[in-house]
Q: What sequence folds into this?
């Protein structure tokens, strides 16, 4: 497999990008302004696109260039634009409903990374790949997953929940580029398109929420219990 | 032959959607959807027979037609047909004919996604199909535009999307585990995964399976990931609830079963089955607690779905020919019976103008025929003889007793009794408590709504009294194809 025997330059480049994406996930976790949140998400998507291209270059997977371009266009430009438009239209400037202070969520996020590292190290050791980029990729993948769920749990604004879901997917996509660069092209492309539909659906639902419930905060959703 | 049937199953709803969107007339939309559901039903009825000789793959290995998939497609097709007939009567009561074409287009689209899911041969494409079911059905749940429906739709899409993103992670890890053996690029079909599983790393497979189980388990509605289910099932229009419960949940369960057979082939030990059994038992427990104290009529039915998905999970978790047969039989029975129950609940809601059990009184006296049908359905859904669910639940219990997790079978028996008492107590109140000052029901129930209830109840009675040999053989073949010989801790 590619990740096991990379030349050192490629390995450090991949590591740099993976760690930078993880840091951007923390930026999202710590920011209270939806706009910053969105910028961080876009930057993270660009990094993932660059990573796809780099993996394609070093691992000799020409089809990854296509994925890189599509990732950049869809995740990096179009999705942020769609969400930006939703924010703009609905006049939601920032995260108004905070359950957990930014500092506490950062600490919990750090704990999540430690947990992810433990799991990744165990799997890496099991495969005889400890110390390679595999462990790092798995760590970033799992911790972005956990951070995404953390965002879903502590944020109540509808838009930030959408972004939380997108972070979940970004984590998987990032890890998949390093771990399974040869995954069938069709699946990857369809998943990208699928994301577009997801965001479109969310946009429509946010509109319904505002029109029929009168708020885009999930704190207002308290009717259905028991 | 199976290919042509599958093509009919896919093309009929697609054509209906296109025609509905082109014509945009309420009565035509009803007709197109009804015709599509009838074609799908006929094709799905023939499909299990056509795939008896073994699985067939089509379209560059992306489509597989096998016993397991055909069975789930049949269950979905039955619910689609019954719900389409019921929808004609039910949706007219909404008095918004201009929105009906939109409803039927979405409805056919939702049915299409649930029918296509079990046909997918690639684990990645299956994931996409499941994701699509969520996206389409969200708008059906939100269709009535009440604040409650929007709330339910939002919770549904957030919880389920989060859940199945875990399944995507699991899918990627499965692919990775395979790529360590097969090389970086291969088609991730179920058969390829099963083949490669024995050489793959067990820790990785286990991690991947647990992620997939939690992910698709969210979609199946296994507790504690069931939280979206009562909201979505209770707030959508009744035909949608029936399709969600009777078709969608099975479609997602198929994924779990396929992955289970992969980890079985790998021989990773008893943990995967044990986790599935525990999730099933927890679902039953949660459902029992919420059924006993339930106040909303459709939420009662929704928790009953959690219960029955728990029972099916137990059946597959126990495994062996008996467990698989019981679980598959239970899928069919549950699909029929839950459609009947949701149809009844929808009609009762319309007649009494309330969603709460407290507002529905003296059903037997005021709506005798409807009342008798719905009550018979309630007796059936709690697993009482002589209906089909009794037979399938008993089979699953028997399968469980032979395994080392007999505790789960005992727990299941106890909880089923609790649910029996709790569920029928609500019906006792609705049927026989004095009416008080409640308003009388508005009008009689249309024939469009009564006929599908008959069509669900009668087969249920037949299936309870007579379990055809052909079905036994069919289930045995499916169990064998899932590698039913490797059962949980030495079941026969």
A:
């Amino acid at each position: 497999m590619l990740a096991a025997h990379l030349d050192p330059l490629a390995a450090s480049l991949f590591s740099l990008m993976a760690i930078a994406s993880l840091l951007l996930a923390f930026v999202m976790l710590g920011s209270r302004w939806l706009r910053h949140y969105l910028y961080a998400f876009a930057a993270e998507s660009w990094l993932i696109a660059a990573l796809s291209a780099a993996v394609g270059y070093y691992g000799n997977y020409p089809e990854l260039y296509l994925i890189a371009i599509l990732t950049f266009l869809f995740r990096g430009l179009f999705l942020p634009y769609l969400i930006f438009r939703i924010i703009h239209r609905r006049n939601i400037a920032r995260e108004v409903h905070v359950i957990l202070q930014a500092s506490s969520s950062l600490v919990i996020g750090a704990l999540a990374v430690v947990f992810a590292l433990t799991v990744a190290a165990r799997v890496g050791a099991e495969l005889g790949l400890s110390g390679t980029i595999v462990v790092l990729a798995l760590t970033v993948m799992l911790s972005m997953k956990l951070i995404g769920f953390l965002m879903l749990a502590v944020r109540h604004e509808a838009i930030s929940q959408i972004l939380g879901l997108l972070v979940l997917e970004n984590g998987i996509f990032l890890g998949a580029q390093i771990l399974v660069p040869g995954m069938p092209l069709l699946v990857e492309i369809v998943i990208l398109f699928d994301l577009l539909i997801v965001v479109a659906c969310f946009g429509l639902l946010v509109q319904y929420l505002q029109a029929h419930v009168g708020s885009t905060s999930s704190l207002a959703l308290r009717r259905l219990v028991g | 032959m199976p290919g042509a049937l599958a093509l009919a199953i896919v093309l009929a709803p697609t054509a209906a959607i296109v025609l509905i969107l082109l014509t945009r007339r309420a009565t035509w939309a009803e007709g197109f959807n009804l015709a599509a559901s009838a074609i799908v039903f006929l094709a799905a009825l023939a499909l299990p027979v056509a795939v008896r000789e073994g699985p067939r793959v089509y379209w560059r290995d992306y489509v597989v037609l096998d016993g397991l998939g055909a069975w789930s497609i049949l269950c979905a097709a039955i619910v689609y047909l019954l719900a389409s007939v019921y929808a004609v009567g039910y949706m007219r009561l909404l008095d918004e004919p201009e929105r009906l074409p939109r409803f039927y287009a979405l409805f056919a689209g939702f049915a299409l996604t649930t029918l296509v899911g079990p046909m997918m041969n690639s684990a990645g494409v299956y994931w996409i199909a499941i994701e699509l079911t969520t996206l389409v059905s969200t708008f059906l749940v939100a269709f009535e535009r009440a604040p409650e429906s929007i709330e339910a739709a939002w919770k549904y899409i957030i919880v389920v999307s989060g859940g199945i993103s875990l399944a995507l992670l699991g899918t990627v890890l499965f692919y990775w585990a395979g790529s360590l053996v097969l090389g970086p690029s291969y088609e991730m079909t179920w058969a390829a995964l099963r083949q490669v599983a024995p050489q793959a790393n067990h820790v990785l497979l286990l991690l991947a399976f647990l992620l997939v189980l939690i992910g698709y388990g969210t979609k199946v509605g296994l507790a504690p990931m069931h939280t979206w289910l009562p909201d979505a099932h209770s707030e959508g229009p009744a035909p949608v609830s029936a399709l969600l419960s009777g078709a969608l949940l099975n479609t997602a369960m198929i994924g779990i079963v396929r992955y289970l057979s992969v980890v079985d082939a790998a021989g990773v030990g008893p943990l995967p089955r044990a986790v599935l059994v525990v999730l099933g038992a927890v679902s039953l427990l949660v459902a029992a607690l919420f059924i006993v104290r339930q106040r909303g009529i459709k939420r009662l039915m929704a928790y009953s779905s959690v219960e029955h998905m728990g029972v099916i999970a137990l059946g597959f978790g126990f495994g062996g020919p008996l467990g698989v047969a019981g679980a598959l039989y239970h899928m069919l029975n549950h699909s029929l019976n839950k459609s009947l129950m949701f149809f009844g609940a929808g009609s009762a809601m319309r007649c009494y103008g309330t969603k709460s059990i407290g507002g529905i009184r003296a059903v037997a006296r005021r709506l005798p025929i409807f009342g008798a049908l719905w009550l018979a359905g309630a007796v059936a859904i709690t697993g009482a003889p002589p209906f089909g669910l009794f037979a399938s639940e008993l089979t699953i219990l028997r399968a469980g007793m032979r395994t080392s997790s007999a505790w789960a079978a005992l727990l299941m028996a106890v909880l089923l009794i609790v649910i029996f008492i709790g569920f029928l107590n609500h019906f006792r109140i609705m049927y026989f408590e004095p009416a008080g000052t409640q308003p009388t029901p508005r009008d009689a129930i249309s024939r469009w709504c009564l006929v599908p209830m008959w069509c669900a109840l009668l087969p249920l009675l037949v299936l309870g009294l007579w379990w055809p040999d052909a079905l036994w053989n069919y289930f045995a073949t499916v169990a064998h194809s899932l590698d039913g010989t490797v059962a949980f801790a030495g079941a026969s």
About this structure: The beta strands of chain B are 56-58, 63-65. Residues 270-466 of chain B form one domain.
